[in-house]
TrEMBL record:
Family: Belongs to the MAP65/ASE1 family.
Coiled-coil annotated spans: 158-185
Alphabetic keyword roster: Coiled coil, Cytoplasm, Microtubule, Nucleus, Phosphoprotein
The protein's name: 65-kDa microtubule-associated protein 6
GO BP annotation list: microtubule cytoskeleton organization
Amino acid sequence: MVGVGAGLGLVMEGTSCGALLKELQQIWAEVGESEVEKNKVLLDIERECLEVYRRKVDDANRTRVQLHQSVAAKEAEVASLMATLGEHKLYMKKDKGIVSLKEQLAAVVPVLENLKCEKEERIKQFSDIRSQIEKIRFELSEYNDQGDNESSLAEDQHDLSTRKLNSYQAQLRALQKDKSERLRKVLEYINEVHSLCIVLGINFGTTVNEIHPSLHQNGVEQSRNISDSTLDGLASTISKLKAERKSRIQKMRETMESLCQLWKLMDSPEEEKRQFSKVMSVLILPEEGITSSGVLSQEIIDKMEAEVERLTKLKTSRLKDIVMKRRRELEEICQNAHIEPDVSTAPEQTDALIDSGLIDPSELLANIESQILKAKEESLSRKDIMDRINKWIAACDEEAWLEEYNQDPKRYSAGRGAHINLKRAEKARILVTKIPSMVDNLINRTFAWENARNKPFLYDGGRLISVLEEYRLSRQQKEEEKRRYRDQKKLESILLAEKEAIFGSKPTPKRTSSLNRKTNGYRPNGNANGLKTPTPRRSSLGSATPELLTPRSYSGHNRCFGDLRRLSTSHLNFGDDSLSTFTSISGSEPESPSLG
């Protein structure tokens, strides 16, 4: 404890506290205070002194921290203002080891005040430029959004640099230039609209008033609206007027072309053409070169269309006669080629269509001309087959004549012309033997024609293959019938010979007629009813019988054709009266003679 007192005494030496400690020790010596009590008191004094020192140190630290914070805040504000104002010069901080905090604070405060004043001045400059910009923008766009303006001003608080200010000044100069350019463009647009309205015969005042009423005023230029909507409206109007001009020019040129064709076709006098001479001289110019007042007006167009309509009606009456004449020519070509003409241009239909105005006679005439050309080409492609058809029909006629000639009991008489008939019969017999090969060749050529053109060969509306196949099938049936008849005759001869050998005499006529009845009434030179098969005629080929079916021999070739019209050969004579009728609908063969 003595050490503590000595230490305290050393600390307090040379101070008022040291004197007080000496005085206290003297008092303790007079009183006779024990060492324990002395040490206790000294410890209390030392503790109380430490607490006093600690409080003072803490107060000093707080003051230092506050100064540090104040200096840092001022320096940060200076840095922010310098960044906002775009100042490139740096604020030089003093060395903290040399300059005290209070000196640093005293140095930064004037700088901060100067920057604040500069900021206020810069804000004022920005506000003036912004107000001018917004005013011009309002004039250009007719739209003022105060919220956007305030937002822009608030954004400007964060960037007040000279670069930003220069940018606004450049923007202001650009808007002023744009305003001047728009005024010039509006005047140009108005002049162009005026020129187009004069040419087209349209009211100018009504046209521009629909865009903006100020465009038709005669005041100063600044009174005219120069907004985007006005410019767009003028540009759109000019585009529409140009499109209308182009459309009218095209329409008038087409109408004038029709007029010239009608004038030439109808041989119109010069008096009728003179009223449109000015229009003709203008229409040869380019679009931009047409500037005459009212030359493209709707009134002139209506006048031209009325003249075209008048001449067209006159032309229609004349074309109708030409159409009928060409249709008759088409029908004659089709008749000679045995093909059916197109029913779409039938006289009864074309007359009604022309009278009702549903079809242009020129188009109808062109259609008939196309059909005539097509019919001629079709006829040329069918010529080879048609020649062979004629030869086949002629051979069938000769065959029918030969059968009639063979039935004539006086064919060998010495009458006039008998030798001529004998020569004809000889030639007919040779020709009849060639009929099967003629038919086969005709079928093959017809198939080749159909395959090459992918369509059926029609003869008077019916398919030729069907007729040829049925003819060939019926001829085969006829030959089979002849063979059976010959076999029947041989059998009858054998039976007669046996009966003569048994009875020694010939059968009675009644018995012979009984044998004939056993052949189901078959006659050598007739059908079952004793009727002669009619002689064929050329015009009978192709008579339609819907019930007649295509023969089975053709079914293998019928790949590319659908349901076709069938031809009937019910009037054709296939060479022998022994065949009573053609094949029935079911395709069954004629009943063969019975042996009884």
